[in-house]
Structures are given as structure tokens and as C-alpha cells.
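Quick start: read one record
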Amino acid sequence: MKRTRYVSAATAVVLMTGGPVAVATAAAADTARTVAATVLAVPAQVTAQEAAAAALKHYPGVVESLDLDGAVWHVDVISKDGKGHAELEVSASGAVTQQNRDDDENAAENKALTSAKVSAEQAMKAALAAHPGQVTTVEWDDDDGAASWHVEVKGKDGKTWDAQVNPTTGKVTQSDSDSDDDGDDDN
């Protein structure tokens, strides 16, 4: 509201002193500032696949989980021998920072993950083939004894699709629409 008053007052002053040419110049400058501010406010966003690749380049191993939080990806990586673990953040520009690192993990607990035939990256690809959109979460899930990849895909319709991907075959074994943009359950 205040901006409208200021623009109206400025336009009146310009009309009285400079005429129509000054008004057109002032309007063009204002539009250019608005467009520039909008472009600067929107950061570049890396995809889940790009975030995984950046994290693995920083800390080689196997992605255990990947989750989008605003414009930052949180990525957990287990070393190839299963004894190391790193918590990484990948920014919207693709820059990687290490938040935590442990070198005393129990390799036996990570054996199923490190020896899985289907990686997190392959699970994302399978889930996207079943439901096009943007991957927002990938997580290794072996809590109930049957290991699988849990992949969330936000579709173009705003709904979030949950997919379970078999870590041996890469087949999407379950895929349900859980929620839409406002967080309400559809089921």
C-alpha cells in the first residue's frame, strides 16, 4: 500500500517536471529493479540426483538417505566398507559442507545397504519412471526386516507420491499418493 502511494507521488512529480518521457524512463527503471530483485531472490536448485552426486564426490560411499529441507539437501553417506558415516549438506548451488563424520560405525549393521544391488540413485530413477516429478526424499529402510528404498516424489500436481523400491530388482513395489501441498492426507 505504501509503495503504491510513493509510486503515485513520484509519478505526479515527474509529470509536473519532466513530462511523459520521464514517466516512461522511471517506469522502465522500476520494472528493471523489480525483475533484478526477483531473479536474485530465487536460488539455483540442484536436483536430488545432483545432490547425491555432489555428496558422493565429497565423501565416497553409498547414500543412505537424502532429504530436501527448504533449499538445502541433507545427505547421509555410509563409507563403502560400512565403517564410516558422514552427514553432509548440499546447498542450492551444489556446495557441500560436512556436518558430522564418524569412523567407528558397525559394518555389520550397514552390510545390507553397502551390498544392495540397487543404489539410492537407481531407486530415484525407478520412482521417477513410475511417477514423474521431483524427488524430495530417499531413505534406506530396513526396520521391519525387509529392506527397501523409500522414495518420495512431488508430482507436478502438487501431490507427494511414496514409493517403495526393491533393493535387489529396482522394481517399484508400492506407490501411493499420500498428500498434497497443504500437508493434508488424501487417504
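The chain is about 35% helix and 30% strand.
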